[in-house]
Each structure stands twice: as C-alpha cells, then as structure tokens.
Design goal:
Elements lengths: L3 E6 L3 H12 L4 E7 L2 H11 L3 E5 L7 H11 L4 E6 L5 H6 L4 E4 L4 H22 L9 E5 L4 E5 L3 E7 L2 E6 L3 E4 L3 H5 L6 E5 L2 E4 L3 E7 L2 E6 L2 E8 L3 H13 L1
Parallel strand pairs: 1-2, 1-3, 3-4, 4-5
Antiparallel strand pairs: 6-7, 8-9, 8-12, 9-10, 11-12, 13-14, 14-15
Helix pairs in contact: 2-3
Length: about 250
Amino acid sequence: MKRIKIVVAVDDQASIDMIKSLVKDLTDFQLIGQCVNGEQLIEEVMVKKPGLVLTAVTISKKNGMQAIKECLSFFPAMKVIFIADNNEYAIEAFEIAAVDYIVKPVSRERLGQALEKANNIISFERDKTGTEHKSKQKILPLRDQNATFFIPLSDICFIEKVGKKCLVYTTTEIYDTYETMARILERLDVSFFHAHRSYIINLAKISQITPQKESFIVHFNDTDKLAKISKLKINELRERIALLSHG
C-alpha cells in the first residue's frame, strides 16, 4: 500500500514534536511538509498534494479552517484532522467532512486514533476507485494577492516571467501572480516545456516556430501572443514534441 503523505500546519512546538514522533513510527504515513501559518499551508498543499493535512484551527495569516476550505476547492479528496483550543469550530469542521477534531491538550493516544481513522478512510477510497483521486480535468491552481484561480492546463498557451511577476496567457485571459516559474512548473504536466529563462510554453498549443536572431519565436493556436525559445533549447524542444506526438 502506498504511504499516505502528510502536511502539518501547527505553530505549537509540543504538538509538532508529538506528531513527528508518532508519524515516524507509523509505516503507513510519510511526513512531507511542515508550516506555521495558513498561507504556507495552501502553498504546501498546492505543490505537494498530500493525502492528509493535520492543522491547527488557530494559526496566523489565514486560520486553518479558511485555509483548508481553499485547499479542498482544488483537492477535494484531501483529508484533514483539526487541532483546536476548544469546540468552537467543531460543527464547521465536520460540515466539510473532517476526519477528526482534536481539542488540546493533544495526547499521543488521541492523535494515534485520529490517524488510524484517516488511514481507514483513505484506504477504503483507494480500494473503491482503484487509484488515488485524480481530477477529470487537469487544473493549475494559481494565486494572486487576493484570490486563487483554477486554470485548466489545456487553456494555457504559455507563461512569461516579467520582473517579479509571472503572466499566464490562456486562450481568453491573462493572469498575473508573484509565484515563481519554478513553483508553477512543478504543477504542470509533460505538455509544458521551460523553453527560455522567461518562458514556459504549452507544446500542444504551438502552431508555428520561426527563427529570429539569437532565439526562436513561438506562435500559438487561439491567440496572437508570442513567446520565445532559446537557441540552446530548440533541439530539446523538438525531441519533446516528437515524444509527445508518438505518445
């Protein structure tokens, strides 16, 4: 059985130490991320796609309940265990199908029970579907300063780095974000290629490539916007296109 990946968002060191110690002894789980506030939690979930999140309700920047609701909007199969100071958010937690809601102080036994429950639920769902949850349509969750956008990968033509921002060009819109190209690239599939230090392009959208001085210009279907390919990358790009066309 594949191990269940866990991200922890707790700012209480005693709870963090207990969780780490307990997870280390459980062969069904793997701790892949740790953060101390809601903004970091959303970022970790976007990039690492855990099967389970253990989060405090009371964490800085964005509380655990708000952060989890946002995470569930793009990873609805993800499970969550809340750790709270009191029962104030218990009803709200179970309304979003939380696996468990633990009120502090957190004991090793109580945490173990919650993890066992999560393991049973996730194992049942894996058996039922034959695979871990996959979205029918591949989506890029993209954050700006005020919101998270959910962009179908098939709509994206290319991504351009401009100053500290990245611009995501789709067939109809342009989205901007302060997320780095490296972080965005981690969430894209094999159709995307880092063709230039300032451009990631969707190979499936290319209509034409033309040489221009020290680089190549890329034309796309469904948009008149243009991107560039470094001359150092052109041969690798041709190989990738060939592989995709035979795949």
